[in-house]
Design goal:
Layout: H1 3-23, H2 30-33, E1 52-54, H3 57-60, H4 63-71, H5 80-94, E2 103-107, H6 114-120, E3 124-129, H7 132-138, H8 161-167, E4 168-172, E5 185-191, E6 198-199, H9 200-210, E7 214-227, E8 237-238, H10 245-257, E9 261-262, E10 265-266, E11 278-279, E12 290-293, E13 296-306
Parallel strand pairs: 1-10, 2-3, 2-5, 3-4, 5-7, 11-12
Antiparallel strand pairs: 1-13, 6-8, 7-13, 9-13, 12-13
């Protein structure tokens, strides 16, 4: 790319950002989001996530949301990353696989508390992440988002050390080349990881390949990026890609053709004040549900797939 082409591209992208900012609503009054949602007593939901779905304000306000946030040592707040963890936990819970004796596989676990929680429930967990060298190049070590080993995942407040030691193992794993040694699991998951595999196709292929790690009838629950701006223009290659509606529909088609069951997608945008607020760089710790990223309006999405044969 020549300097002129680079300049034109930069101007184009900045213009898109400005348009998004002008179109976005201002930050909602503090009374709408500060100290909310309420940290109410709750329990796991019943059929809370029957569908693969995008992140919306109303999900944060359900009793199960506060329940799961507490179980992984988090305060309740409007943040899409927390929503992703709750989506994974609740989706797997209501499908009956978080139970003693089950086996779970986590991809790109970083510093997540999920392995410790699963272990506390008697689930045998294989947690995986990229090599330290790959993580350093990608900036995950600098941002404290890489698991160098099993010890990085210990959470004594969530799982007693002796139970954690028994139930959690750790392995290095390239998500673009899942080793054949990782097989026979009841479920697998990843939280905002497969958008970092280099391309849209690599991300879709990972979801498909993740099913190879499961027993027949096993469950895969993954979260990733979703661009709400366009079903055409996107970021298709690079360190972070943005998946469109059509990409997830293509994923569902491919998996369904192979006999797997994909929970239908619900792309309906939310209509609450937090759903209408567009967070821009530097991103706020809250509320952070919809964000501007490289000229795109994006949020998180959760995908639920059951492997054929169940």
């Amino acid at each position: 790319m020549t300097r002129l082409e680079h300049l034109n591209h930069s101007i184009f992208m900045e213009a898109k950002e400005i348009k998004l900012m002008l179109a976005a609503h201002t930050l909602p009054p503090a009374s709408v989001w500060k100290g909310k949602p309420e940290n109410i007593e709750g329990a796991p939901g019943v059929n809370a996530f029957p569908m693969s779905t995008i992140c919306r304000q109303d999900s944060f306000e359900q009793p199960h949301f506060a329940y799961w946030a507490r179980r992984i040592g988090e305060g309740v707040r409007y943040h899409r990353k927390l929503w992703e963890f709750v989506f994974v936990l609740q989706s797997l819970w209501e499908r009956g696989v978080i139970k003693p004796g089950a086996k779970g596989l986590g991809f790109g676990v970083g510093q997540e508390a999920l392995p410790a929680f699963f272990a506390s429930q008697g689930v045998r967990i294989m947690a995986t992440d990229m090599t330290a060298e790959q993580a350093a190049r990608a900036g995950w070590i600098a941002s404290n988002e890489h698991a160098a080993g099993k010890a990085a995942l210990a959470r004594p407040g969530i799982c007693p050390p002796e139970l954690f030691e028994t139930n959690v193992d750790f392995s290095v794993c390239d998500m673009n080349a899942i080793p054949e040694t990782l097989r026979g699991f009841d479920f697998c998951w990843s939280a905002c990881a497969f958008e970092h595999l280099g391309s849209i196709e690599a991300g879709l292929q990972f979801v498909e390949n993740s099913l190879d790690t499961l027993k027949p009838g096993g469950w895969a629950v993954h979260t990733s990026e979703y661009t709400m701006s366009s079903n055409d223009v996107t970021i298709a290659t690079g360190d972070t890609v943005l998946f469109r509606k059509r990409d997830y529909e293509e994923l569902a088609r491919r998996l369904t053709e192979k006999g797997h069951h994909v929970a239908p997608f619900d792309f309906t945008p939310g209509d609450g004040p937090i759903d209408r607020y567009l967070d821009i760089l530097p991103y706020r710790p809250e509320p952070h549900v919809i964000m501007a990223l490289w000229g795109h309006q994006t949020t998180s999405i959760g995908v639920i797939v059951q492997k054929a044969g169940g």
